[in-house]
Fold this sequence. Notes:
Largest sheet: none
Distance between the termini: 19 Å
Radius of gyration: 19 Å
Strand content: under 5%
Helix content: over 70%
Amino acid sequence: MWTLAFAIYAGCKWLTWWSDRSRACRPAWRSVAYLLAWPGMDAEAFLDATVHVLRPPLRSWLFAFAETSLGTVLLWVVARSVPESHPLLRGWAGMVGAILLLHFGVFQMVALFWQARGVNAQAIMAAPLRSASLSEFWGKRWNLGFHQLAHDWIFAPLHRRLGTFVAGWLVFAVSGLVHDLVISLPAHAGYGLPTAYFLLQGAGVALERSSFGKRLGLRRGWRGWLFMAACTAGPAFLLFHPAFVMQVILPFMEAIRAL
């Protein structure tokens, strides 16, 4: 799984750098840092040396440290305390811990490190639990690295010809196929379930933007938040299906001595 995921990541990383290579020579160290020491896909922002970035406040570092610590505890302490008779629960505890540790903790610290040095490196995760709608969750707060890539290479070229609705659905479909590739393929099972998950997200976005969704207030306030939480967390078993947890996550946790 990791080899496949890294290969896809490296290819996308090179593609974003190459598309903005006119900035890559000024200064050259930013290109090296972007390619090797930054997990995001925002080449244009990262390579632009003309943008002034404020130093991050101490509280940002403290939040990142807290999320790193929480993820570490979940992965190496809580998961191990779950009885062996509940392997799925063990796997989910470790998987949530790994996401907190990397995406919300370590990657956040890397962003703060570059911001402190004047580089416009925006965090990969932008407080997704604060989302007031499903559109905000996927478009502005969750995994902004992939969002930037999908916007630049799928949505932007297609939305004028196919319309915003169809282009948005294609983004979710491609995201599902990529997740199937790195989740279902290594597990040798569950094919199509991650794609189904992301197609459900597309349906949710379409519903909240419809006249019916607007009447229900699905794009704001507590109703929007509940709808977002139900759509993203409710069918999460389709994305991280049992075969993936049992055949990929649990062996990985054993390899890193988390179990």
